[in-house]
Amino acid sequence: MSVLEIVQIPTRRDNYVYLLRDAETGSIGVVDPSDAQPVMEELDRRSWQLTHILNTHHHGDHTGGNVELKERYGCTIVGPRADHARIPGIDVQVGDSDRYAFGEARAEVFDVPGHTHGHIAFWFAESEALFCGDTLFALGCGRVFEGTFEQMWASLTKLRALPDTTRVYCAHEYTQANARFALTVETGNQALKDRAAEVDALRTADKRTVPSLLGIEKATNPFLRADEPSVARAVGLPNAGPVDVFAEVRERKDNF
Ligand code: ZN
Ligand code: FE
Question: What's residue 2's pLDDT?
Answer without folding.
Answer: 83
